[in-house]
Amino acid sequence: MIQVTVRPAGSKRESRYVLVLALIIVLIAALVAWSRVTPIEHNKLKAWQIDARHQLNAAEQGLNADLNVAVEEIQFALNQQQDPSLAYLESLYLPPFIKDSTRIERGAHEWQKYQTADDLLYLGISSDVAIAGHMLLRISRQTTASLDPQYDSWINHKANVTAASVNTFAFDDASLIALGFKQIISEYDKSVTRH
Fold first, then answer.
1. Which whole-number Å values give the CA distances from 179 to 60, 97, 114, 156, 186, in the listed order?
2. Which carries the bigger pLDDT value, residue 8 or residue 69?
3. How far apart are CA 100 and CA 108, in angstroms?
4. Please, what is the end-to-end C-alpha distance for the chain in angstroms?
5. Distance of CA 90 to the CA centre of its chain
6. Between β-strands 119-125 and 134-140, what pairing exists: parallel, antiparallel or unpaired?
7. What is the value of pTM for the model shown?
8. Where are the chain's structural domains?
9. What are the tens digits of pLDDT across the range 101-137?
10. Peptide bond before 96: cis, by omega within 30 degrees of 0?
């Protein structure tokens, strides 16, 4: 009589091969994904500039967004030969120039309008720079007739800006920087929606 030992059919050896193959595939996929990652290059801000997304608080971001929208209304008024006075902007219920409940939450700015030969300026002096700094919107008069106005926004977190001191301001870049203002830069890149 012949005895034959029959081992039960097992899948240990096959399972090991499948597991090793799966690990190799995952490692190759991870290596390919890692090799294709491109570093996000942020433009280097100058010492007198500030990033709107990362360096402004929520109240200041809201004020900056409101000022960016207000530029279009101001340009429209200029193109219609109207004076975009503070009273006119308030009559349009245009934030941040209206006196509503959000005004106090955003620093209770007192807005003043100034004009130079080249620029039209709106300066908001904050009652509390801890909530939001003093804001300045500068619109170039050179581009009021064009469809794409040239403007910039500035912010100052120092308490040295008062209504009395504003009359001595020169509103050019060098003077604003010397007074402690920082130009607000909106930098949009691929990571804008990934935070």
1. 19, 24, 17, 8, 22
2. 69
3. 10
4. 76
5. 24
6. antiparallel
7. 0.72
8. 49-193
9. 888 888 899 999 998 888 889 999 999 888 999 999 9
10. yes
Greatest Cα pair distance in the chain: 118
Query: In this predicted structure, what is the pLDDT of residue 145?
Result: 53
Q: Assign 24 to helix, strand or coil.
A: helix
Strand partners, 151: 139
- Taking only the tens place, the pLDDT of each residue in 49-93 is 998 888 899 999 999 999 999 998 898 888 888 889 999 999 989
> Residue 158: helix, strand or coil by DSSP?
coil
Residue 89 to residues 49, 64, 141: CA-CA distances in angstroms?
28, 16, 18
Amino acid at 192: V
Placement of tokens 């804008």 in the chain: 192
Q: Which helix (H) or strand (E) holds 135?
A: strand 134-140
How far is residue 137 from each of residues 3, 80, 109, 122, 164, measured CA to CA in Å? 98, 20, 13, 5, 19
Q: Which helix (DSSP H) or strand (DSSP E) does residue 177 occupy?
A: helix 173-178
What residue type is 161 in one-letter code? Answer: V
Greater pLDDT, 187 or 54: 54
